[in-house]
Structure formats: structure tokens, C-alpha cells
TrEMBL record:
Keyword rRNA-binding found: no
InterPro entries: PDZ, PDZ_6, PDZ_sf, Pept_M50_Zn, Peptidase_M50
Cofactor(s) of this protein: Zn(2+)
Name recorded for this polypeptide: RIP metalloprotease RseP
Bilayer disposition of the protein: Multi-pass membrane protein
Lineage of the species this protein comes from: Bacteria, Pseudomonadati, Myxococcota, Myxococcia, Myxococcales
Pfam families according to UniProt: PDZ_6, Peptidase_M50
Gene Ontology molecular function, alphabetical: metalloendopeptidase activity
One Gene Ontology term, aspect cellular component: membrane
Listed GO biological process terms: proteolysis
Native species: Corallococcus terminator
The organism's place on the tree of life at top rank: Bacteria
Length: 543
């Protein structure tokens, strides 16, 4: 608790210090007398005076301020202070002083990100862990274990690099250079268009259907197949091929490729067998030995089996699927006459149909069946005891537990000072643009006010990011600093943006905004900020 509070105070303290330091240094450079530099509000905890300025740390760490001589109208000043007062300074100096705070808040993240990016970084490699069977990569012959080297001639080192390389590339053939078994080859892939919509922007990129996360080699087995005749069953997890351990699908492809067609394969598989202890029943894994001749094809096909994706693992009690006679182990074949290649495609079609009837074809122990069905409400209860009755069909695919998933391959990227600074200088303007778009979305109603957070949310974020490591904590610090800089540039009274606008106005019109107008504007601005803070705190408490 105290540690989390410390991270929160450190976060605010650094951000406030950087922001106010901008005002302070530029005010000093412009000859304006600075009376007080304060980190925090309220009673002073500690402080000292050096020269003409008092420096202090105050009790409430939710902000700070720089008190300059003559920054309030009608303020009584000595002749020396009056000549060096803020409002007595030329408009261009006042504009610089006011702008310096947000500018420091926006530049500071560049240095933060520089240290985040500098040095060795572990990130996901371009090794393909899983290939979606109904998308472009599978159609092009890409398989688990392949390493993607180039996208349309552009070298890629990380999975994020590869994703970014597909921005704007879709619905046309794209050459991909990949490495398989130590040899390079080029395949033509036609990505599907995918729009990633967020409150900030919309990015259109090509999707080819690969994931960096490897899958365990779990097989689906058709009745009467070579795999079934040899004793394999659906949902068997292959542990080894001819004595060689296989930890993922890529290893299965690699090992069966070494064996000529017709030669014997000795498999060790893990199979979940039902057990009952008194009134409690469950399943425990047992290791089985299976032998069969190597079949034609690659991966699961070489075992006479197929990918487990379209095999039904569970059927919801009382569902339409149960009423139709679908059982665990059955394979979904087609919907409305269209053959299916993945459970995701089935879910997408069903989601679009809602309660409309559809024709489903599936294969079980008694052979293939086709029936006309429709999704229906099914009463469910969530972990919080809330009940609902969504439209469901009632079948689910095989789900892997986190313990089943093989380790994902990572690559170390070592950025030197120049490359790290370049990355930092590129990411900050991007985040600034996103912040501006979010603010615009709040104004026009595209972004919900419920997304606004206050001190409680900042405390939670600081604590969580600190637990995740220094890089995560520094990233949060940079993002909040950018938010602070952008917000303070808004032309709202009592914020830096309004003071900047006033200085620019006076520089152009050659006369200041009337004092009465300024006072009323400040009152309105303060009221707006209080309402905004109340909304933020309300959102925090509601969360």
C-alpha cells in the first residue's frame, strides 16, 4: 500500500516538476521575478529560499505552481517588482513563459522513451506459431514454424514490424519471404482488409491469419480414418514422434516431414480419460502409445488425422446443438452449404444470423447429417450471479489452458542511442495526435465521458505499471505527461492555453483583454474544471 502510494506521488511529483520547471526557467530567462516555485498545494512541508525565489514542497501532490510578481491585476508591487512583473512583460515574453510549461511536458516524454527504448529489448519474433486455416496464409502454404523475413521486400525483425508492414496492403497479392528448414522461399499472399477502429483513429491493414503464439499438437480424428483405425482419438495431444518430443504444431510438421510416406510412426499421446471419485467426476491425462504408417500430407494429415479446430469439445446443456444430437467429438462440416475451415468462421456467421434459421452439416460416429436449425435463448449465470439469456447455438471448440501452451519465441532487439532517440521522437508526436483526437471525440460525443479518469485511476495505473516493471511505469509517466501538456494548451480559462491566447490577443490587438472579462472567464473556467474533476472522481468510484 505504502509502496503504491510512493509510486503515485513520485509520478505526480516528476510530472509537476517538469511542467512548472518550464514556466520557471523561461520566466527567469525573460527577466520576470519569480517569487515562489512550489511542488504541490497547501501547507508547506519543507522548503528554502535562494536568491529572490522561495522553493517548497507542499502537502497535496496534485499539482504545483510558479508564483511570479505581478501575475494578478491590481496587485500592489514595489517599483522594482512592477518593472519585472509578469503582466508588465511584453506579450511575446508572456507567451513564451506560458507556453514553456506545456512544451516541457510534451518534450519530456521524448527523453523518457529514449531510456525505455535504449539497449536490449525482448519482443515477439516473426516465427509463425499458429496459422488460421481459413485465411490467406494457409491458402499460400505458410505453416507453423515458418519465420517471416520480408513483406514485399521490406525486412521485418519483430511481429509488430510485420503487422505494421501490412498497413495499407490488402486485397492484392503481396510477396512474403519466409525461412523454412534453413531455406528461404517466397510465397504470394492476398491479405484480407481489416479495419482496427479505436476512439482515436481507424487503421486499415491486411490480415493474413498468423499468430506468434504456438499451439499444442492436438488432433481431430474422423471415424474410419487411418488415425482412428490405429487407435488415435479426437483431442489426443501428440507428445512425441518416433521418440522425439514435439512441443508445438511446428515441431509436429518438422518431425513427420523426416519420415517417408508408408514408413512406421510411433506416437506417444496424452489423452484425457474420465475418472470418478465418489460423487465427483473429472478427467485426467494418460499417456498412450499409437503406431501407424506415415500417411500422405503434412502435419496432422501425415497421421491420418486433421486439425482439431472444427471439432466440438463441449455441447451446452439445453442448447439447440444438444437438441439436434450434436455430441463432443463431432466435426462441423458446413453452414448453409458453405464448407467451414475454422470455428472462428462458424462463430462469425452465427453472430450475423442471430435468430435466423440456417442449415448445418456435421459429421459424427453415425456419419454426416444436415439439419435446419436456429439459435435460441439459453439461460446462463455468470460468476457474479447475474443471469441472462443470449441467443446461442451451444457448441464450443477445444480450449487450451495456459499450462498447455508452448513458450512463444522472442527476439532481442538492441537499440543504440541514435536509434532509441529516433524511435522516441517518432512515438511522441503520434501519441500527441491521438490525445488531440480523443479530446475532439469527447467534444463531439464519439468518445464516452466515462473514459475520463481522476486521481484514483492514476493511483491504480501507477501501482499496476510499477508491478509490471520500470518500462511500463516510464511509459505511463510519458503518456500522462503528454496528456498534461495537451490539456494545458486548451484555451480554457485558468489553464495555460487561455493565458497563451490572451498574450497572443494582446500582441495582435495592442491592448489586453479587459480585466472584468478575464475575471469572469477565470470563474467560468474554474467552474468547468471543478465539474470535470467531479466527473473524473465519479468515474473512478464507479469503476
Amino acid at each position: 500500500m505504502l509502496q503504491n502510494l510512493g509510486f503515485f506521488i513520485l509520478l505526480l511529483g516528476v510530472l509537476v516538476t517538469v511542467h512548472e520547471l518550464g514556466h520557471f526557467l523561461v520566466a527567469k530567462a525573460c527577466g520576470v521575478k519569480v517569487l515562489k516555485f512550489s511542488i504541490g498545494f497547501g501547507p508547506k512541508i519543507l522548503g528554502f529560499t535562494k536568491g529572490e525565489t522561495e522553493y517548497q514542497v507542499a502537502l497535496l501532490p496534485l499539482g504545483g505552481f510558479v508564483k511570479m510578481a505581478g501575475d494578478l491585476p491590481h496587485e500592489e508591487l514595489s517599483p522594482e517588482e512592477a518593472s519585472r512583473g509578469f503582466l508588465a512583460a511584453p506579450p511575446w515574453k508572456r507567451a513564451l513563459i506560458v507556453f514553456a510549461g506545456p512544451a516541457f511536458s510534451l518534450v519530456f516524454p521524448v527523453f523518457v522513451y529514449f531510456f525505455v527504448f535504449l539497449g536490449p529489448q525482448e519482443t515477439l519474433s516473426t516465427r509463425v506459431g499458429m496459422v488460421s486455416p481459413d485465411m490467406a496464409a494457409a491458402a499460400a502454404g505458410i505453416r507453423p514454424g515458418d519465420r517471416i523475413l520480408k513483406v514485399e521486400g521490406e525486412a521485418v525483425r519483430t511481429f509488430d514490424d510485420m503487422r505494421d508492414a501490412f498497413v495499407g496492403k490488402f486485397e492484392r497479392p503481396v510477396p512474403i519471404t519466409l525461412e523454412r528448414d534453413g531455406q528461404e522461399r517466397v510465397v504470394q499472399v492476398t491479405p484480407e482488409r481489416s479495419s482496427e477502429v479505436s476512439p482515436v483513429d481507424t487503421v486499415e491493414r491486411g490480415m493474413i491469419g498468423v499468430s506468434p503464439y504456438p499451439q499444442p499438437p492436438v488432433v481431430g480424428v474422423l471415424a474410419g480414418s487411418a488415425a482412428a483405425n490405429a487407435g488415435l482419438k479426437s483431442f489426443d495431444r501428440v507428445l512425441s514422434v518416433n521418440g522425439v518430443h514435439v512441443q508445438d504444431e511446428a515441431a509436429l510438421y518438422r518431425e513427420v516431414a523426416k519420415v517417408p510416406e508408408g514408413s512406421p510412426l510411433a506416437l506417444s499421446v496424452a489423452r484425457l480419460e474420465p475418472v470418478a471419485v465418489g460423487a465427483v467426476s473429472g478427467r485426467v491425462p494418460e499417456v498412450k502409445q499409437v503406431s501407424l504408417p506415415r500417411q500422405a500430407g503434412e502435419g496432422p494429415a501425415a497421421l491420418g488425422a486433421e486439425a482439431v479446430d472444427l471439432y466440438v469439445a463441449t455441447v451446452a446443456s439445453g442448447s439447440v446443438a444438444e437438441g439436434a444430437g450434436i455430441q463432443p467429438g463431432d466435426r462441423i462440416v458446413a453452414i448453409n452449404g458453405t464448407p467451414l475451415k475454422s470455428f472462428n468462421k462458424l462463430a462469425t456467421v452465427l453472430n450475423g444470423l442471430q435468430a435466423q434459421p440456417f442449415t448445418l452439416t456435421w459429421r459424427g460416429e453415425q456419419g454426416e447429417r444436415t439439419e435446419k436449425l436456429a439459435q435460441a435463448p439459453l439461460k446462463t449465470r455468470d460468476d457474479y450471479g447475474q443471469t441472462s439469456a443470449p441467443l446461442v447455438f451451444g457448441v464450443r471448440p477445444w480450449n487450451y489452458s495456459s499450462a498447455d501452451l508452448p513458450p512463444v519465441e522472442k527476439v532481442t532487439i538492441d537499440l543504440g542511442p541514435v536509434a532509441a532517440f529516433k524511435e522516441a521522437a517518432l512515438i511522441v508526436p503520434k501519441i500527441i495526435g491521438q490525445m488531440v483526437q480523443v479530446l475532439g471525440g469527447l467534444v463531439v460525443g464519439k468518445v464516452s465521458p466515462s473514459t475520463i479518469g481522476g486521481p484514483i485511476m492514476m493511483y491504480q495505473l501507477a501501482a499496476k505499471s510499477a508491478e509490471q516493471g520500470m518500462d511500463s511505469y516510464l511509459n505511463l509517466m510519458a503518456v500522462i505527461s503528454i496528456n498534461l501538456g495537451v490539456m494545458n494548451l486548451l484555451p480554457i480559462p485558468v489553464l495555460d492555453g487561455f493565458a497563451l491566447l490572451s498574450a497572443i490577443w494582446e500582441g495582435i490587438r495592442r491592448r489586453p483583454i479587459p480585466v472584468r472579462v478575464r475575471e469572469v472567464a477565470n470563474m467560468v473556467g474554474l467552474a468547468l474544471l471543478v465539474l470535470l474533476m467531479l466527473l473524473a472522481v465519479t468515474n473512478d468510484v464507479t469503476r
